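S., here's the first fold you wanted:
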Amino acid sequence: MNDTIGQTAGKRLLPALPALALAIAAGGHAPAAEAGATFKIDDTKWVSVGAGLRTSFRSTEGAANGGKWTNDFNLDNIRLYLNGQIHQYIKLEFNTDCQTCGDGGEMRILDAIGKFELNSMFNIWAGRMLVPAERREMNGPFYSAIYNIFATGTPFEPADFNLVIKSDGTSAGSFGRDDGATVWGSFFDGRLQYALGFFRGLRGGANVDDNILYSQRIAYNFWDVEKNPGYYTSGTYYGKGGDILTLAISNQYQEDGAGTQLDPGTFRGTAVDMLLEKVLPNEGVVTLNGEYKNYGISDGYSQASRDAGGGFAMFEGNAYDVSAMYLFPEKLWIGQFQPFVRYVNVDPNGSATREVYEGGVNYVIDGHNARISLSWQYGDLMTKGLDYSSTASGDRVNAMTLGFQWQI
């Protein structure tokens, strides 16, 4: 199962070269996805490279024999970013990640996207990319506000349920990515943003007929418009994006997208998410994140089949995640402190409810590029995990995480 997940797209920065910025503006493109170093080939063509690293130390109570604390150093993500523009309207993105970092580590393809970016209203991406979903998936780990956002969050989307892509009925993608195409754009000066996706989804197993997974995300920006490449999002802008109030709804659907070959079920996942970020008169920043999920499986995949194990055991039920944080305006040494609190509740059909409380503090040095996070968690979500069988069990335990994040 996916535990130290990495689900975001490559490094995101606004254009760094004036000439490049002019070229992009002339094309009416959405903000480009670029990395730390940009190499200009001519007035139209360019290539950029970058990298991102997340690593942590985590100690968990009672997960070892005799109730002893486990202590683990983790390499959560190491990514290489490569972006390029071939033509005024055509771009290419290629990113890698260590998708099995917890087991030695293999660098695998994260994103491989061919992009036709025509105007603000209509664009097409094809290849391997993020499946349009709730904000957490569109943020990924590098642009989320909380370090543990995936390891102890609400249930995963199908494309995020397993670490690696397989064709044996246990995988529908990896790290929130899948092979397919997305049409995206915005209207009303960017306030109404949409993304419609068509993906392969579950490979083999219950999906004997190779049915397509359909996905959709629609967001409306009530205050300032969030500015991100494509249909990506962020969990916070540290006050640099203005005052943000965005509400979004997303859906995913695949016939025979869950269960086993002998007992397939049709998967439907609906999520509603909200981001509110307000810059106060003292230049402190309040950020609130919230999401609610309702997943259903119909026309099959009984609880008896789930209890028997095997197949694609997607979540079915309700879950929500809420968090609040405050970024102090004063800089202490090279960064700013951002304390936060969070609560996650997962209520599966036919299985035990699980939850986690979390409190912590971020030390923000350079936004999403350089950040240190320390947090405490308590609950049974860490022990019950993704076991949605009728016999799922687990104790309430404490856990501490110290996480580091770098990007360039």
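And the second, which I think is the more interesting of the pair:
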Amino acid sequence: MAEQIPFSDVALATNPEPRCPCVLLIDTSGSMAEVVSGTGRDLGRTAQVDGKTYRVVSGGTTRIDLVNEGLRVYQADVTNDPLAAQRVEVSVVTFGDTVRTVTPFVTTSQFTPPVLTANGETPMGAAILKAIDAVTERKREYRQNGLHFYRPWIFLITDGEPTDAWEAAAARVREGEEKKQFAFFAVGVEGANMDRLKQISVRQPLHLKGYSFKEMFLWLSQSQRSVSHSNPGQEEQVKLAPPAGWASL
């Protein structure tokens, strides 16, 4: 009798390339719906979001609109590199009204950028724990299918601070970094609590310049393309471009 392969493992079984996994951990709290350009018509009322008062308008470009544009840029750039498109895997986890895996791990050749919306608070602690569990499980699946893999990345983007307990997540980040189980990056958009991010991330959190989401996602794509062209286990020797064009410390 032929061996049965679970449907979820088909992609792992049919693509023998080593994997370069990345979780995009994206803040979709209500503040990400703030209009940042092309301000629309004032509707004459206010709304309380994440402890702040906002004027309600129609139209305009919001922070989450720019994130969605960045996701499309990221997907297009990685897939321009045929080898990276088969090796880089991405998962999208969001945290706002709830913590949600919007996109389970797929190679970027199969990745359809989601259209995210913003609402709710900032359950960052729970989201980080979910991302860590996701990379742990994905590495188990790689091993089960005999695939080599690079050190996973968890790439956090937020414009706020945790509205839930975050200490356990910070401890898991420290443990994971020390054991080289994953690399954790944190990017704070205007309004983010950078002091809190420093307590969570071992690596120095980066402050996004303005709303340079597109440039940030392009840097991420180029970095992962570079890593995916190295040999698993040697990725730390890859020299990444500095993020100076889109971020500051």
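Why I say that: The first strand starts at residue 20 and ends at 27. Residues 1-7 have pLDDT under 50 and may be disordered.

Talk tomorrow,
H.
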